[in-house]
Amino acid sequence: MAIHNKPGEEFDTVFSLNDSLELSSHHDYATAQARIFKIIVIGDSNVGKTCLTYRFCGGTFLKNPEATIGVDFRERTLELDGESIKLQIWDTAGQERFRKSMVEHYYRSVHAVIFVYDVTSLSSFESIPEWIEECSRHSVGPLVPRILVGNKCDLRDRREVPTSTAQCVADSYNFPLFETSAKDPTEKEHVDAIFLTLAYRLKSHKTLRLKQPSVSDVGQMWNQRENETCQC
Ligand SMILES: Nc1nc2c(ncn2[C@@H]2O[C@H](COP(=O)(O)OP(=O)(O)OP(=O)(O)O)[C@@H](O)[C@H]2O)c(=O)[nH]1
Hints:
nucleotide-binding; about 230 residues
């Protein structure tokens, strides 16, 4: 998505440059108490990364998404066992040309990773090892919780990746596997379960510290993204 998360637009879970300034200067008591975790969502272009994050943060299916340029930020605060957990979700671009200037930012201080493929696209599934390799190259180590997600399960007649095959791959990496659909409203709870699973795992990591991108970091990415939007 290129434009939909301009500051203040659409729903209050969108994270924007303005929000980060707000948070860093005069956040309220509840925000100050929330532990914040950075989750990146990665995978080939068109697998549904934006729609999945939108479904989790906005509660609806995003119709007609545009290709993500650089990164989009969204966030949602959860109350787990009386504790506030804020998930800051980085929806990254699948297309190489929209990624290259920002890859370093994606992986910096990341707390968890969601790898997404499209169950109707064998090639998107076959790319998963490359995405895992890219994480490793950027020092995202084995202690960082990771999850494999097969999206677009509503397209039953077009499935190219059997669950059993995906489960084998997930087991080989020791990742949980989720299959779901951002589009099908009856799958909403499964989409939530992906993020909740990570939230519970992160919550139990008492040593993980609150780390937010600095204002200059986010501002720099925002400017880069705007420039790249203009060139297209
Ligand atoms: N049928 C179906 N279509 C979906 C689903 N999720 C996403 N789509 C469609 O798949 C296309 C791509 O969705 P996006 O969420 O933009 O994909 P993306 O992975 O963010 O793509 P990039 O931004 O290019 O990396 C859009 O046409 C969506 O409507 C799903 O669960 N089921």
